[in-house]
Amino acid sequence: MKKINIIGVIIILISCYACQRNNEQSAQKKNVLFIAVDDLRLQAGVYGKNQMKTPSIDQLGAEGIVFDKAYCAVPVCGASRASLMSGLRPTPSRFVNYYTKKDNDAPKVPSIAKWFKEKGYTTLSRGKIYHFWKDDTLAWSDTPYIPQTGVGFQNYLTEESLSIVKANQTAEQPNRIKGPAFESPDVADNAYPDGLLTEQVVKDLKHFAENEEPFFLAVGFWKPHLPFNAPKKYWDLYDESDLKLADNPEMPEGAPAQAHHNWNELRGMYTGIPQEGPVSDELAKKLIHGYYACVSYTDAQIGMILKELKHLGLDENTVVVLWGDHGWHLGDHGLWCKHCHFDKVLNAPLIIKDPEIKSGKTSSLVEFIDIYPTLCELSGIEQPTHLDGKSLKNVMKDPSAVHKEAVFARYHNGESVRTDQYLYTQWLNDGKVVADMLYDHANDPDENINVSKDPAYSDVVKELAALLEENRNALNKQ
């Protein structure tokens, strides 16, 4: 009996020690609050702009590291998100368009959420993380939360919008949902999905505060994605007569036809938009007003979540990352939406706050594929071997450091390389360059003159073309 008791005591002591070690390891793991915003252009106050009201994003930027030269891999939702989540670059056959699914294009590699789950984290998907909520479902600890209100994916609420939708339904298309590009009802924040999303995330944070389990909480806001539907109080933040139109509403001088697109997302899916040619200044201001209102609406939701994170004391051990899946045009170059290779679309917001790293701002070139390894290193977990990016921790600790000499993006048969001074794009057909464009940001930051055919830039074109070829060859070897 004594021998059995001694063995029992030893087993208990070992078990207690193991529990203590597990608790210590859990306590040492940093949580991750992973905030995605759809179609967010680089225009928050923290980026030196003052027309759009974004106090919550600005506050996060004041507490974290602001990356003003962060680049998406593909300027369209589905592909950009799949690339970021997998940590892989796009290729001509991988991460191509907004229909992209990570499970189809990169099924064998763990996404960032799946990797954290395998390392003992509770992983939750709230809102729009992937384009398709059923993509990468094994990465999450429970079913993704997708709130729905109103009519259609556009979530129309007003009688005026619903009457327009009904008028566009036909015998051949009885369920067609085509309505206005904006609405502004006098409703509470939770009348639209992003408000409901915020309420759910606050509940999740309270759960994590009580249970003290390490978490990877992914929160994806839909707005400012079209249609520009937001509660009236956010529209009321702006006087439309004061809003500024794009400074450069014309295509760049010398830009090839391939640089242009017909902004079919706006023309084809919403009423009241001319099917060809530019929009009127009056309509342009209304669209800009709606976009700004939607950004301010999302900014308020982000503020509520960050306030709760701090109130619960979770901010002391949580890495917060905020990113936009790509930029957005508001009449720049006569374009709306994304789907192109201009800097305002490829360059997108990225802010990372680590409680152990002091705040700052960096103009070092970074890519969204760098987010995956960064969060691994900041959280203290190993990185998987498949990653194409590299951790941003060093540049976060020293914002003056050079992270990369060049970053890359592609969309359909166009491929871009961005250096500190230049943005160069080639369009290929059967492996041959059929068009290109080069912008010198030192002398032309708004990209108004394509200098790819200027003899003074011939050496620059050769150098950047070589970088694109080198990148293609590296991807072909994967």
From TrEMBL:
Keyword list, A-Z: Calcium, Hydrolase, Metal-binding, Signal
InterPro entries noted in UniProt: Alkaline_phosphatase_core_sf (IPR017850), IDS (IPR035874), Sulfatase_N (IPR000917)
Cofactor(s) listed in the protein's UniProt record: Ca(2+)
Coiled-coil regions listed in the entry: none
Name of this protein: Sulfatase
Organism: Carboxylicivirga marina
Domain Sulfatase N-terminal: 30-381
CDD domains, alphabetized: iduronate-2-sulfatase
Pfam families from the UniProt entry: Sulfatase
UniProt record similarity statement: Belongs to the sulfatase family.
PROSITE patterns: PROKAR_LIPOPROTEIN (PS51257)
